[in-house]
Amino acid sequence: MALVCAISNEVPEHPCISAVSGCVFERRLIEKYIRENGTDPINGERLSEDMLIDVKTPPAIKPRPPSATSIPAILKSLQDEWDASMLQSFTLRQQLQTARQELSHALYQHDAACRVIARLNKEVTAAREALATLKPQAGIAPNVQPAYGAEAPERLEQVIEEAGMSDEVLQKLQDKATRLTAERKKRGKTVPDGLVTVEDIKSYRQQSSRVGLHSASIPGILCLDLCLRDTARLVTGGNDKTAVVFNKETEQVIAILKGHGKKVTNVIYHPTEDLVFSSSPDTTIRVWGVQTAQCAQIIRAHEGPVTGISLHATGDYLLSSSADRHWAFSDIRVGRVLTKVSDGTSQHALTCAQFHPDGLIFGTGTEDSMIKIWDLKEKTNVADFPGHSGPITSIAFSENGYYLATSADDSVVKLWDLRKLKNFKTLTLDDGYEVKSLSFDQSGTYLAVGGTDVRVYLCKQWQELRVFNDHTALATGVRFGHNGTFIASASMDRSVKFFGPP
Hints:
Layout lengths: L14 E4 L5 E3 H11 L14 E3 L16 H64 L17 H4 L11 H21 L10 H5 L2 E7 L9 E6 L6 E6 L3 E6 L4 E7 L7 E4 L5 E5 L5 E5 L4 E6 L6 E6 L5 E6 L3 E6 L4 E7 L7 E6 L5 E6 L4 E5 L4 E6 L6 E6 L5 E6 L3 E6 L4 E7 L6 E6 L5 E6 L2 E5 L4 E6 L6 E6 L6 E5 L3 E6 L2
């Protein structure tokens, strides 16, 4: 009697017996079944391959199945196989159609949800802007007094008249300058404790990157500043008409400052107080309290777009420049313009402004490639620095009080000696290189250039130490952390990046 496999009911080519059930199996089939289930197919008890017993039988010719012994039987087998294939294909088409309908319904629901969320976000933003406009704006910081008492919300919208610089203000500026000059002479040529070395700068890599501080629908960060008291805190201004205060250590947004009618092009973080200053082409300068994220003062010093702002060393006065060809000096405590001056020798707009570290002189850049040095007390133009081509994009005074770095749309950075009133060094960059921001570190040892990329130079030798190409668009702001321990940069690619030791 021939052996028959208990699985296929066919005569096995390699028969074996299960030690569990005693049944005969084709070894190939029972091994596959054991790998998938681990049990005997007859009684379900545990079974492994090493428990199978081979059966040795003489070779036998397998009988041909009766269904394949005639042409009609063969044709019927082929027809049955064709029918089965067609039925399976029909079932697969039905399942595909059902899956397509379910996916279409899910996509429609997702699209509807996105539209609802976008509409709600727009309504919330409009409500917040309306609230910020209507809410009383006074009393957000201990050292900031309400500009006009109980009637501040209405009177903040008025154009502020020029008040003039009193003897008290002039004496305050002189005393501060004298004290700062004496402190600088004491420091002399000593390097500050903890200042990073040249080798440290050369080893800097990108440490982190933050995207999403500003709106994705109106991309681009236009300006950046760090708080000198705590350089972990920074403020950025963007194309979305907002300024954002961010802490790099906690990676938390501290405040979102909304109120400008146009993009925010300049921001300053007060060095000792929780105050932020911002300016915009909407012709206004705003003073913000960081803790409450509300506007304390609106300074309307100009009739044209405000192109630059700089905080005086006293922390009480603000310099501003405008496309209306005027610079203005304002008291941030009362929100009043003290003096406003235009250059009678030029009919070109001012593009930027920056105080000298001592605060008695400052520099402005113009649309016709000129850098002008002004005496604040006398309100006179005391020096002109020609040599650039194209509008001036950025100016920066070194903390040592002697150097001035300037840039324009000509792919160079020029260094000026304020003692000799001449250009002593020109850093030639790549063809087509755009410079948007210049910044010395607090010791005056390093100079950072932000634009097509971010570069760091060693002052005096003016040696290029490091180039960072991590941004995918123009770098619009660059600043050094405390003692140069990190470098922060903002870009039109919506990101703020931090570079430091690996």
